[in-house]
């Protein structure tokens, strides 16, 4: 029966990688006892957006094997990377926009929190040196960054992830009047002189625009890709297109677009209003639309209160949309990693 089970599993494709689970090394374990079969699938990310479909397909395939009466499917997850972005860090993902005021930092914080909630090891870097807001959104505005025994910056831990922000290094309310070389030095320290530890994803909240910090990051670290945050408004889309062009010139793949403040649903009537237009993000090109995030009061209130909305109010429509966007982003990262080093993907199979 063992060979028959493996043969059946080889007909099941990962919906995003478009290759079968056996050749991808995703079948971690098969146990057979009488007519009961247990299959453990090792996903390429704990935030897999199509986990339910994989489970259904595995169960259906194995049930076609003569003699199989029941199928139990469980999951593990190992985020894969063709090239480590940093020692211990598998993927660096930049969250950028062409202009301020589109909710980029709020989106970055909630993407990071959603990935961590799903079981990934996540870091969050607030690279908006002039206007850091991540510390406040994480409820750690008064915390101070310390150094470890190796004299490296120790990221602050909150809500299941690690983060660094200039707000936790400089006095509250103090403006930083720095030129380009000082910004470059700060980015270098945040990246290379911080004890990030073992991370699956390091999410970087960029400052608005296409300036020194963006260039420093793309020249300092192996970036997996970028997420563009925009509103559907034409003015925002013009600047978002500039951000896309900047990443193209820096050879940074755009993993997808998130349309923030996409629409507003009046809580008293349920009527939907497209306050800034809707669907304009599709004008940015053939990039995956990771999510359309509605404008909600709770999203702002949670940010001000210091708890990511995906954790404070996980059932709210904006939180659900952000969590889905995080899983789609994780899927895009897995696809890119598989395309870069398919031949090197590990595969371990234990048959009992």
TrEMBL record:
Summary of the function given for this chain in its UniProt record: Binds and transfers iron-sulfur (Fe-S) clusters to target apoproteins. Can hydrolyze ATP.
Cited CDD domains: Mrp_NBP35
Naturally occurring in which organism (per UniProt): Deinococcus arcticus
InterPro entries the UniProt entry points to: FSCA_dom_sf, MIP18-like, Mrp-like_CS, Mrp/NBP35_ATP-bd, NUBPL-like, P-loop_NTPase, YlxH/NBP35
Keyword presence, Zinc: no
Keywords associated with the record: ATP-binding, Hydrolase, Iron, Iron-sulfur, Metal-binding, Nucleotide-binding
Biological-process GO terms, alphabetical: iron-sulfur cluster assembly
Family named by the database record: Belongs to the Mrp/NBP35 ATP-binding proteins family. In the N-terminal section; belongs to the MIP18 family.
Residues annotated to bind ATP: 98-105
HAMAP family membership: Mrp_NBP35
Record-given protein name: Iron-sulfur cluster carrier protein
């Amino acid at each position: 029966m063992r060979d028959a089970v493996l043969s059946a599993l080889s007909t099941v494709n990962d919906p995003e990688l478009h290759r079968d689970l056996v050749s991808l090394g995703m079948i971690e374990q098969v146990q057979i006892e009488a007519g009961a079969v247990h299959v453990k699938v090792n996903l390429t990310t704990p935030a897999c957006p199509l986990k339910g479909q994989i489970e259904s397909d595995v169960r259906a395939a194995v049930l076609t094997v003569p003699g199989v009466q029941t199928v139990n499917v469980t999951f593990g997850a190992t985020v894969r990377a063709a090239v480590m972005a940093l020692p211990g860090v598998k993927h660096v993902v930049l969250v950028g926009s062409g202009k301020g005021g589109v909710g980029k930092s709020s989106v970055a914080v909630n993407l990071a929190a959603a990935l961590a909630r799903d079981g990934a090891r996540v870091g969050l870097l607030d690279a908006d040196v002039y206007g850091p807001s991540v510390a406040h959104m994480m409820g750690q505005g008064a915390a101070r960054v310390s150094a470890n025994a190796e004299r490296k910056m120790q990221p602050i831990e909150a809500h299941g992830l690690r983060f660094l922000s200039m707000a936790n290094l400089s006095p509250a309310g103090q403006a930083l009047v720095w030129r380009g070389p000082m910004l470059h030095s700060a980015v270098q320290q945040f990246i290379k002189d911080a004890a990030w530890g073992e991370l699956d994803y390091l999410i970087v909240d960029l400052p608005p625009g296409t300036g020194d910090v963006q260039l420093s990051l793309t020249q300092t670290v192996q970036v997996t890709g970028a997420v563009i945050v925009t509103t559907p408004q034409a003015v925002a889309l013009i600047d978002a297109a500039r951000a896309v062009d900047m990443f193209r010139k820096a050879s940074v793949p755009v993993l997808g677009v998130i349309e923030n403040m996409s629409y507003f649903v009046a809580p008293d009537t349920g009527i939907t209003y497209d306050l800034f237009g809707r669907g304009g993000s599709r004008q940015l090109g053939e990039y995956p639309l990771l999510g359309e995030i509605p404008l909600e009061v709770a999203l702002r209130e949670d940010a001000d209160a210091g708890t990511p909305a995906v954790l404070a109010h996980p059932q709210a429509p904006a939180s659900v949309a952000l969590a889905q966007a995080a899983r789609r982003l994780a899927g895009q990262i897995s696809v890119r990693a598989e395309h870069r080093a398919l031949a090197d993907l590990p595969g371990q199979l234990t048959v009992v």
